[in-house]
């Protein structure tokens, strides 16, 4: 079997997505997600100018050798752009291999380890009252796990809170918009938020929260302690995770479970966190961490240290990534939970998928491959529109973590 074509499809059905389609001489093709929110064109160039020319003519069955060629052979290893480009190739090749074997991808990985895949969704509101309403809506849709984010009294606009009726979309302007942040106001409010959610909805539902990289380790330790009475499923991205060592301080002070990793792109970003059991869930995703071949290594390593998977699944990860992730979730022994922010109607039209949601859980579907496809003609109707993620400043103007 030979790769005869690999094309990069950029489309913006309400938000930008980059999709790689690899076509073989036997008519089988595979697709991979290559979307990096706010940096899409960088991945397009990395693929079109450097990786795709070296892909043509290769045997698509040699998934591992191709992975090593583009990782070890890159010289400039790791990083979100290169590892997202590599991930797209990897997922497309796994899609081809499973289609050639006429089996759903999870069977190729080792078969299913569970009957269904627990998912969590987002509930957010501009204030406490509207956030409680959003939690009620998510619960009514059948979710058993809900991420709760709220506007913070005294802060005009903050991460995770939609400013319209549409789903929250952080890449909201051509150039970075500026948000203002106050750790004090946040730390004063969040325990009150979760006290209100638990009072309203009881202890049955899993509650998650995304701090989004904004605290120092001791502040994160304090928040973790303050949230212990509300028994969160996890506290996510409490601190910027370049300094893996700093998680020792958080771990020392609180039993609130810790999740991190959506911005990681290789096992080296999380090795210390995992082997020292400083986290409970690893969130590296198939689209940003080198694809199925590399995330499988991360998950297997994590299984040695009681760390479970909790893949990132925001709307800026396309249905192709969601499909591949759900096949992986179906198989992986140390599965934790899968994030699911519903894509908009247009995206659902551009990307058909075999995965299904029912009563709080997903199943990946039985179609050969990962079960997701792209309607190229429809995708072509929605041209790319640059959209960048915001920046964040403290109230005194200091540039802070977004
Ligand atoms: C968030 C994302 O879903 C999450 O956990 O961290 O919304 C994240 O902000 C976006 O994916 C960034 O593009
Ligand atoms: Mg997050």
Automatic annotation (TrEMBL):
Instruction: Tell me the Pfam families matching this sequence.
Output: MR_MLE_C (PF13378), MR_MLE_N (PF02746)
Write down the SUPFAM superfamilies for this protein, in alphabetical order.
Enolase C-terminal domain-like, Enolase N-terminal domain-like
Transmembrane region(s): none
**What InterPro entries is this protein classified in?**
D-mannonate_dehydratase-like, DgoD-like, Enolase-like_C_sf, Enolase-like_N, Enolase_C-like, Mandel_Rmase/mucon_lact_enz_CS, Mandelate_racemase_C, Mandelate_racemase_N_dom
Domain spans labelled Mandelate racemase/muconate lactonizing enzyme C-terminal = 128-257
The record's NCBIfam families line, in alphabetical order, gives: ManoateDhtManD, PRK15072.1
Q: How is this protein named in the record?
A: Bifunctional D-altronate/D-mannonate dehydratase
Protein's organism: Cellvibrio zantedeschiae
């Amino acid at each position: 079997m030979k790769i005869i074509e690999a094309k990069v499809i950029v489309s913006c059905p309400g938000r930008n997505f980059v999709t790689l389609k690899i076509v073989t001489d036997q008519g089988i093709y595979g697709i991979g997600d290559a979307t990096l929110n706010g940096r899409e064109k960088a991945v397009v160039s990395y693929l079109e100018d450097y990786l795709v020319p070296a892909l043509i003519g290769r045997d698509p069955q040699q998934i591992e050798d191709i992975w090593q060629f583009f990782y070890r052979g890159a010289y400039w290893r790791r990083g979100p752009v290169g590892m997202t480009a590599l991930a797209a190739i990897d997922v497309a090749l796994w899609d081809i291999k499973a289609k050639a074997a006429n089996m759903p991808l999870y069977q190729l990985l080792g078969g299913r380890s569970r009957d269904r895949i627990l998912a969590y969704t987002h509930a957010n509101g501009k204030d406490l009252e509207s956030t409680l309403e959003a939690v009620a809506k998510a619960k009514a849709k059948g979710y058993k796990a809900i991420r709760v984010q709220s506007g913070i009294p005294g802060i005009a606009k903050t991460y995770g809170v939609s400013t319209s009726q549409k789903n929250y979309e952080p890449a909201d302007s051509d150039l970075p918009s500026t948000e203002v942040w106050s750790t004090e106001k946040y730390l004063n409010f969040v325990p009150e938020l979760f006290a209100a959610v638990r009072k309203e909805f009881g202890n049955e539902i899993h509650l998650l929260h995304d701090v989004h990289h904004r605290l120092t380790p001791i502040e994160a330790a304090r928040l973790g302690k303050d949230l212990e009475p509300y028994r969160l499923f996890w506290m996510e991205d409490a601190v910027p995770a370049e300094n893996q060592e700093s998680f020792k301080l958080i771990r020392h002070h609180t039993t609130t479970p810790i999740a991190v990793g959506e911005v990681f792109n290789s096992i080296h970003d999380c090795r210390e966190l995992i082997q020292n059991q400083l986290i409970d869930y690893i969130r590296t995703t198939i689209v940003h961490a080198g694809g199925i071949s590399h995330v499988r290594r991360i998950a297997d390593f994590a299984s040695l240290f009681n760390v479970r998977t909790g893949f990132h699944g925001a709307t800026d990860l396309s249905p192709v990534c969601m499909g591949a992730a759900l096949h992986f979730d179906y198989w992986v022994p140390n599965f934790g939970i899968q994030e699911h922010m519903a894509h908009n109607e247009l995206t659902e039209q551009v990307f058909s998928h075999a995965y299904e949601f029912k009563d709080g859980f997903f199943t990946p579907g039985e179609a050969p491959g990962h079960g997701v496809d792209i309607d190229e003609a429809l995708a072509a109707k929605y041209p790319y529109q640059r959209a960048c993620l915001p920046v964040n400043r403290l109230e005194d103007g200091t540039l802070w973590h977004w």
